[in-house]
Amino acid sequence: MMRMTIAVALAIVTSAPALAQDPAEMRAAREVLMQLQPRSFAENREYCGYVGVLPDGTVSVTEVTRGRRDSCLSRADESRFVEIVASFHTHAGFDPEADSEVPSIEDIEGDMFEGVDGYVATPGGRLWYIDGQRGVATLICGLGCMGQDPNFVPGIAGPIANRYTLDDLNARMSEW
Question: What SS3 state is found at 47?
Answer without folding.
Answer: strand
